[in-house]
Structure formats: structure tokens, C-alpha cells
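Sequence only, no structure available. Ideas?
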Amino acid sequence: MEWYLPLIWGLIIGVAVIMYVILDGFDLGIGILFPFARTEKERDTMMNTVAPFWDGNETWLILGGGGLWVAFPRAYAVVMPALYLPVIIMLLALVFRGVAFEFRWVANTSRRWWNTAFTAGSFVAAFAQGVILGGLVQGIKVENNAFAGGPLDWATPFAFICGAGVVVGYALLGATWLLIKTEGPLADWARTKAANLLVVVLCAMIIVSVLTPLNFERIAQRWFSTPNIYFLAPVPLITALLAIAVWRWLRAGKEMLPFFGTIGLFLLGFLGLAISTFPYLVPPSLTVWQTAAAPPSQILMLFGVIFLLPVVLGYMIFVYWIFRGKVREGEGYH
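Reply:
I predicted one. C-alpha cells follow.
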């Protein structure tokens, strides 16, 4: 087997997951913040800030899931039955949220119900994604290269804490996105929310960072054995320094820097996840090489990705450029 092919596909799927978390994360965050807005006009403006982008952002979820299916079919066959319930709940919540997004604009007498549906879909989707992450980190029981656990193995306090952490993280992304796209009282409100959420996100990151090595010996060994600890110590240190920088940017009235700083916190969290689990795609037993498809299949699909990925990136850049700038009250794209 060409040893490098699974690594290339692992990188592609990792990039797709990162892009999805960042891009769909801020518009899910808008939905999570939705019930806390002070007026219906503010909710209209909040929704208009993501109206041109939200459906395109979900493209990366398809690439990540489809890439796992074609490049690592054995991992897909194990992960899906292990996490079937949270995955289905996430997908249904995203569908429910999308329907609410469209119907809210044309609803008059039932708008408050669609507001609730939009918020519930965003919250449930974000929470389910965190639970899926926690379920992967804590490990999946595998025997004879097949899932050997129960349908509720993922339902642990650790997974639920991860779910809550993703919810507040997305809310922080949404609040900092509003700093870029809005102005006036709404932007001031978003800045206050972002500062509060930053504190909660840091608490969630600390709790997860402490619980992970305490509960999973393999991860503790990875981080705290020598000489690993000397090479990996900068990761939490850089995270702390970046969090302090985001706090100062919020206090200084910066618009774009808090958003990109929050993205940096997510990237550092993703790096910590990669350090904790690599080379296992199905922790703690199946590696990227053990779960990879046959090399001809990987190469064939790789040619498709090579041609399509630049198109997706080009479209994304074009849309974000066209709809750049502030969204003011009464303006929109719907």
C-alpha cells in the first residue's frame, strides 16, 4: 500500500472538518444567540448576516463525510453504527434549521415559532457535533475490525461536556462574526456577549483538557511522557496567550481580530485533538492505514477532489467577497 495516500486523505478530511466547524460554526452560533436578541429587527439583521453563506458553509460537512466513506470505508463502517444516534440527530437538526431559516421570512402569524425552530435546530446540531467529538475521543469498542459496542456507548458525561463546549464555542464565533457584519447597538451587544462567552469557552476548554488525560490513559501518555511534554507544552501556552489577546481586542473595540482570534482557538483545539488521537482514525484501535480503501480507489477519488476543491474554494471566496461589508437594519439578501 502507498503509505502516503491515507495521510493525504486524512489531511483532506481534516481540512474539510476545520472549514465546516469555522464556517458553519459562526452561523450556528447566530442561531444559538437568536433568543437573546432584544428585538425582532435585531434578529432580522442577525439572520441577514449569514443569509448568503449558511447553505454553502454546509458543503464542507458533505466533503468530510463523503471523504471518510470513500477513503476510509472501514472507519466509516465502525464510526457510523457507534455514533448513529447523534449523527442522525445532528442531520435532522440541520434540516429543521434550514426549513426554519426559509419559512421565517414569509411567516407573519407564526414567526415566533420559526424563531424557536431556528434556535432549537442550531443548538441541537451544535450539541450533537460536540457529542460526536466526545464519542470519538473517548474511544469506540472494536472487535474483528467491526463495531462491538452498544448503541448508547457514546452517551457519557464526557461527551455531553464536549457537546456543551461546542455550543458555547459556536456562540462565541457567532458573536464575533456580528462584530464584523453589524454596527451600532447590535454590535455593542455582540461585543458584550463575546466577552462573556470567551470566559465560558476558556472554562470549557480547561475542563475538557483536564478530564481527557484523567479519563484516558493513552492520551495522558501522549501528552505527559518525556520527551513529548517538552514539545507539546507550547500548545496550551499559545492557547492561553491567544485567549488573552482576543479579550484585549474585544476591550479595545476591534472588529475583525476577535473573530480570527476565535478561529485560532478552534484551530489550536483541533491541533490538540490531532495530537491526542493520531494515527488512530477510530481510537484507540484502528489507524488511518488499517481503515484505508484500496490505493486505486483513493487515487481515483483524489483526482476528483483535485479538480473540485479549487472550484468550491473559488466559489466560497467569490461569495464572501460579493457580500462583504456591514449589514444594516432593514437591509438583507433574502
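The first strand starts at residue 142 and ends at 143.
Hope that gets you unstuck.
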